[in-house]
Amino acid sequence: MTGAPRRRIPEATVARLPVYQRILEELLRSGTTTVSSEVLATLARVSAAKVRKDLSLLGSFGTRGAGYDAAYLIDQIGRQLGLDRIWPVAIAGVGNLGRALARSEGFAARNFCVAALFDNDPRIVGEIVHGVVVRPTSELPAVATATPLAMGVITTPAPVAQRVADAMVEAGIRSILNFAPRVIEVPADVLLRYVDLSIELQVMSFYQARSSESTAMEGMPVIRSIGLSPPAS
Amino acid sequence: MTGAPRRRIPEATVARLPVYQRILEELLRSGTTTVSSEVLATLARVSAAKVRKDLSLLGSFGTRGAGYDAAYLIDQIGRQLGLDRIWPVAIAGVGNLGRALARSEGFAARNFCVAALFDNDPRIVGEIVHGVVVRPTSELPAVATATPLAMGVITTPAPVAQRVADAMVEAGIRSILNFAPRVIEVPADVLLRYVDLSIELQVMSFYQARSSESTAMEGMPVIRSIGLSPPAS
DNA sequence: GTGTGTGAACTTGTTCACAGCG
DNA sequence: CGCTGTGAACAAGTTCACACAC
């Protein structure tokens, strides 16, 4: 239909596209219909040149002298990212985090649909969260057969994360998002991503803050842990 | 004390260090004390050369012919990342997600300490979550004065996210982690990081899955949204 | 004039391959 | 002999600067 340029988009660009998209959506909501690379760059905290290069890879959607049409750009980015169709996801582990994810608006806003919830706690099985009934994990294969699942989200306690991952792989799920604080192993052809809510992101932030000579932490109580000795040689 | 080589560590390496660290901790728990770059690389899903180069930047901690001492390496990585001291964090917004974060083990495991919780809902204020009392957001300045806060975590609904961010900046917080699905603006010297639970990560995963010629989604019901027309020229 | 689109220069990050230490 | 540590070759990503379309 729309003559899309099927070039290969660099990974670094792909990682920024959702950021642009969300900013564009907000601008649109606040009444802005046209946006320049300069403005988009400021809001996304990147350089204007980067924005222009990124967007030019999807095609020439901008208007010289004016900027980009926000609505059209949102649509083009969405198409590029595969968000122009609905992706059914399953969430395993209906605790605090699983519940928060299932109820969050974000999924639906990006055409992800929470199609199934799994948990092994008999007090939770049968409960209806955000319109979806919680089933025992043993029913995963049956559900996956009836409704092909595009992605599995693991929000279980760490000890059962690997078992759940195995079940998901067995059921044909090829993309897994792991929120459990546990390293899991899956076949090489399965896409596995970790989200560590408490650690990785913060750690990076802190390191960057400290390495850019920030003096913000100057007045803080420094409590050092006891270091280990180097291994005996 | 430990003669640390204070070289500049590349950002890409810093991003991988927490991954190595967690894997090392798990290996240690399962009884492994020494690990080769090969093994660590496989578990972290990167190349062995990368692991060696990354670790060599922190100093020469490995033993040729044998590998690395897991416990010692964990400690060295922790020191490099600034995790050898305790960082107090404040969480604003004690809903599903805020609660899940406050209760999660991960913070304490990495020397982050949930020092304060804020919410404006009178039904939530006063509640004690994971041993910390929930205060009204108006008390943020007072709390920040008494206990310097290293990081602010925003888990509020989108509409109040900007207001909370402003209050945090005002209170002297220089690192903010935003879980609210809303673009917020802070001064350039404040470190701002977005975590979009439902979107960015999944989107990337999907794009990568599709672009590597995966046939996994072949049998899925494709439901395309209605595309927009190009902007009138 | 204004702001996009893009080759060319540059910087950062990754892989290779192997010397050398334990 | 195995595995680290590292310079040197290569690839990816970013910035620059400017031609050109509106």
Write a compact overview of the structure shown:
The structure is a homodimer of 233-residue chains. The first copy, chain A, is of the alpha/beta class and 233 residues long.
Describe the protein's architecture and organization.
2 copies of one chain form a homodimer. The first copy, chain A, has 233 residues and is an alpha/beta fold. The first copy, chain A, has 2 domains: 11-81, Arc Repressor Mutant, subunit A (Orthogonal Bundle), CATH 1.10.10; 87-194, Rossmann fold, CATH 3.40.50.720. The first copy, chain A, has 9 helices and 9 strands. In chain A, the strands form 2 sheets. A 7-stranded mixed sheet of chain A has the order 5-6-4-3-7-8-9. In chain A, helix 1 (11-29) packs antiparallel against helix 4 and helix 2 (37-44) crosses helix 3. Chains A and B meet through helix 1, helix 4, helix 5, helix 6 and strand 9 of A and helix 1, helix 4, helix 5, helix 6 and strand 9 of B. The first copy, chain A, binds a DNA duplex (22 and 22 nucleotides) through residues 10-13, 36-38, 47-50, 52-53, 55-56, 60, 62-68, 233.
